[in-house]
Design goal:
Rossmann fold, 10 strands, about 15% strand, alpha/beta
């Protein structure tokens, strides 16, 4: 029960998921792994994505985690089935929780999915939504420039608004009532996306942040498996990256919501066993 939750992403965007877990489960210990040496995953082949993800899971397993949260839409969309190996370590991705949260939030209208080109191309969100509601109309939109705009810190910049208007223009006339933020970077653009979507559609929309949906599912699974940490004290937080820990502090803090005190450099190809 006192073992930590392991979270990984191809970079630092998954810290939005880690922050949601901290908020929902303050007692749990967290280990975050950002594979900054090999980011981005979206341009890689599915086989390479699975190989990278398996490296990350192996590292987290060696740290003694009790569950792995795949805070990466690309891996969740294209590689999560290759991570379990029939073992007993629970692995949760972001796609299904996000799809389920969107169905619950929607008033029955079409649902839009904003994501990176790789995530949109995979069709994973469309499939997950249709598993729950086969007749639901889904409007997927690739938004590749949102990631660099967030990492540049331009979350309220006029350029970001112009880019959002370009990307969301296809929503005009669709009647979409709910939008899934299908990338861990996108919650930082929530205000801009909501304003532009309302402008384009002519009515307010509900935005679904998969991070909070994942945190809710993790909390439920921990309770069901009797794995929740019972101590009253706040959990420890450990932040690991595979490259340049001294260069990512400012960006990491944007996603985490607070200053990240220390980024630890790790080698996921030669991960040491957890020390007692």
């Amino acid at each position: 029960m006192n073992a930590p939750l392991g979270i990984f992403d191809s970079g630092l965007g998954g810290l939005t998921v880690a922050a949601a877990l901290r908020e929902a489960l303050p007692r749990e210990h967290l280990i975050y792994l950002g594979d900054t040496a090999r980011v981005p995953y979206g341009t890689r082949s599915p086989a390479t994505i699975v190989r990278y993800a398996r490296n990350n899971v192996a590292f987290l397993r060696k740290q003694g985690v009790k569950m792995v949260v795949v805070a990466c839409n690309t891996v969740s969309a294209q590689g999560i089935d290759g991570l379990t190996d029939g073992g007993d370590l629970p692995v949760i991705g972001v796609i299904r929780p996000g799809a389920r949260a969107a169905i619950e939030a929607s008033a029955g209208g079409p649902i839009a999915v904003l994501g990176t080109p790789g995530t949109i191309r995979s069709g994973a969100y469309v499939q997950a939504i249709h598993e729950l509601d086969p007749d639901r109309v889904v409007v997927p939109i690739a938004c590749p420039l949102f990631v660099p705009l967030v990492e540049e810190g331009w979350v309220d910049h006029v350029v970001t608004t112009l880019v959002a208007r370009e990307y969301l223009a296809p929503l005009r006339g669709t009647g979409v009532d709910t939008i899934i933020l299908g990338c861990t970077h996108y919650p930082l653009l929530e205000k801009t996306i909501a304003a532009v979507a309302t402008e384009v559609l002519g009515h307010p929309v509900t935005l679904v942040d998969s991070a909070h949906a994942v945190a809710r599912d993790v909390a439920a699974l921990l309770a069901r498996m009797n794995l929740a940490r019972r101590e009253e004290s706040a959990g420890d937080r450990r932040f690991c990256v595979t490259d340049a820990p001294d260069r990512v502090g400012d960006v990491a803090s944007r996603f985490w919501g607070d200053a990240v005190p220390r980024m630890e450099h790790v080698d996921v190809m030669n991960a040491p066993e957890k020390t007692p």
